[in-house]
């Protein structure tokens, strides 16, 4: 299937991580010019090298999501290097594992700025151009915790859920401008984030990481963690032209993990 992304410019946040890197590489294979945003410049360099080695076009830039004032300059740099952003993939890092109670308000505020306000501000920066061109794709990656809250990930559960309401509202506002806005929920995908969470759980419960991972995969109907490429394939479809009638949706990529309808 031709996703119609040749010549389009895509900005992928968190592009140095497992999910973001897979998404960026997949969009590049589809012909998109990809801007790679992440705070980890060494990881960005590796992803950029991979894309270029495969014949793609990529531009890497340090992107600190806590620096709201720097968003305009970052986007201007992308526009100068690759052209205006047609596809925005909002993929932010996760906060530390915490229970819901007893957290410092400063941690809540910092996490809200990095995980929510940054996404909203960045989207607002690229939306006028998308509207003018009558074409755009906004894909926001959240977590399965917005449907089934994950124990000890209270900040993530709460703040990522706010993005679901924002995206649904935005989708109705921009639909007639040829712009779609969708949420993608990763289940347990084999990334450094999942390995970190498994290690933390093992530490709390006095078990081995292998025991925790086996218990975790045992609860997934397909019997394994997902691969980053499987997640990236869904995001790439939502970023492309064939998904033009899919908007305001929440798409699960979880191997059947979430039991609810």
Characterise this structure.
The chain has helices at 18-29, 41-53, 71-82, 105-133, 154-174, 192-205, 209-218, 228-239; strands at 9-13, 33-38, 57-62, 87-90, 136-141, 179-186, 250-253. It is α/β, with parallel strands linked by helices. The chain has one domain (9-189, 226-253): NAD(P)-binding Rossmann-like Domain (Rossmann fold, 3-Layer(aba) Sandwich), CATH 3.40.50. Helix 6 (192-205) crosses helix 7 (209-218). The model has no long low-confidence stretch (mean pLDDT 95).
From the N-terminal CA to the C-terminal CA, the straight-line distance is 29 Å
CATH classification, class level: Alpha Beta
Low-confidence stretches: none
Instruction: Specify the CATH homologous superfamily.
Output: NAD(P)-binding Rossmann-like Domain
Query: What share of residues is helical?
Result: 40-55%
Strand fraction: 5-15%
Give helix and strand order, one letter per element, not per position. EHEHEHEHEHEHHHE
Radius of gyration: 18 Å
Query: What structural category arises from helix and sheet content?
Result: alpha/beta
How many helix segments?
A: 8
Q: What's the β-strand tally?
A: 7
Keywords:
261 residues; 7-stranded parallel beta sheet; alpha/beta; Rossmann fold; SDR family oxidoreductase; SDR_fam
Quick structural overview:
With 261 residues, the chain is α/β, with parallel strands linked by helices.
């Amino acid at each position: 299937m031709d996703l119609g992304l040749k010549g389009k410019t895509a900005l992928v946040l968190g592009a140095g991580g497992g999910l973001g890197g897979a998404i960026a590489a997949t969009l590049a294979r589809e012909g998109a010019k990809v801007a790679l945003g992440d705070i980890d410049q060494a990881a960005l360099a590796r992803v950029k090298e991979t894309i270029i080695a495969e014949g793609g076009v990529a531009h890497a830039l340090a992107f600190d999501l806590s620096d709201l004032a720097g968003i305009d300059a970052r986007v201007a740099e992308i526009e100068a290097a690759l052209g205006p952003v047609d596809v925005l993939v909002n993929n932010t890092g996760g906060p530390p594992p915490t229970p819901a109670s007893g957290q410092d308000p400063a941690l809540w505020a910092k996490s809200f700025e990095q995980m929510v306000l940054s996404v909203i501000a960045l989207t607002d920066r690229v939306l006028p151009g998308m509207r003018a061109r009558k074409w755009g794709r906004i894909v926001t990656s959240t977590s399965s915790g917005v449907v089934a809250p994950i124990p000890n990930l209270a900040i993530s559960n709460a703040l990522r859920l706010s993005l679901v309401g924002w995206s649904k509202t935005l989708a109705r506002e921009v639909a007639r401008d040829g712009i779609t806005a969708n949420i993608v929920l990763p289940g347990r995908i084999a990334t450094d984030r999942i390995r970190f969470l498994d290690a933390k759980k093992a530490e709390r419960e006095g078990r081995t990481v292998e025991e925790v991972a086996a218990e975790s995969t045992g609860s997934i109907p397909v019997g394994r963690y997902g691969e980053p490429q499987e997640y990236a394939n869904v995001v790439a479809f939502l970023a492309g032209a064939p998904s033009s009638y899919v908007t305001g949706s929440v798409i699960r990529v979880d191997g059947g993990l979430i039991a609810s309808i």
